[in-house]
Write a structure and sequence with these properties.
The protein is mostly beta strands. The protein is 12% helix and 42% strand. It has a twelve-stranded mixed beta sheet, covered by helices on one side. The termini are far apart.
């Protein structure tokens, strides 16, 4: 009887590669945030595509547009438009008003004295996520860079004819990329967010940004004036 062949030991699993946090990528992100905070007035338009996963597993993309105008420190107007709905948010330094244009419903709640504080209160107290809100948080202590587990410089990218640096970041539950314009005006030109927590399909949201730095409507345009036939409704605080 032949002796049993020796059993080769199981190969040890290779250790997972160590996460890389490129400090220069984080510094570039913070420099962009500092530049955004230096802009006293601006208007930015975003062409946004949002992935939806069908029951079959196929992904389709829905398109919407966002226009955000700001006058620091206390004026903000955001209009979100898609084929199915139109919603506007007004902040005049004292009050936030949300207006569903097609349904002609609007509601208001009192707001703090600055855009940054108002964006924070809207999300935490009323569950209102202001589109492009991170533009007012990046580079501040309210933008969580401590939870970044990976930060890399991907390389140069041309976005709308503008030469940018592409950076990629990972945080618990989300992967995201940002393309920042090179030169003295480090504006974000593209933002890609991929959800990695909960939905195995990992849907993606892409935004291409077009800027008009130094341009915004007059102060009066940030105060909501109810149109004829509009109905006021209550805005409830989000459940805790």
């Amino acid at each position: 009887q032949q002796p049993a062949a020796p059993v080769a030991p199981a190969a040890a699993s290779a250790p997972a590669p160590a996460a890389v946090v490129n400090e220069k990528a984080v510094e570039r992100l913070n420099a962009m945030g500092a530049h955004l905070r230096s802009l006293k007035t601006f208007t930015v338009n975003a062409d946004v595509t949002v992935e939806e996963v069908l029951d079959s597993g196929q992904k389709v993309e829905n398109a919407l547009s966002v226009e955000l105008a700001a006058r620091r420190p206390d004026k903000l107007r955001v209009a979100t438009t898609s084929a199915e709905r139109s919603r506007k948010i007004y902040y005049d330094g004292k009050t936030v008003t949300i207006y569903a244009e097609k349904l002609k419903y609007y509601g208001s709640f009192p707001a703090p004295a600055t855009i940054g504080e108002t964006v924070d209160v809207a999300a935490k107290k009323y569950g209102l996520e202001v589109p492009l809100a991170d533009l007012f948080l990046m580079g501040t202590d309210k933008f969580d860079t401590k939870s970044i587990t990976e930060a890399i410089y991907v390389g140069p990218q041309m976005i709308g004819g503008v030469l940018c640096d592409q950076l990629a970041f990972r945080q618990p539950g989300v992967d995201w990329q940002i393309c920042i314009e090179r030169g003295k005006a480090p504006l974000p030109r593209k933002l890609v967010v991929t959800g990695t927590d909960g939905d195995p399909a990992q849907p993606v949201r892409r935004s291409i940004l077009t800027w008009k730095a130094g341009t915004a409507p007059d102060a009066a345009a940030f105060t909501f004036a109810p149109p004829a036939g509009a109905t006021r409704i209550a805005v409830k605080e989000a459940a805790k």
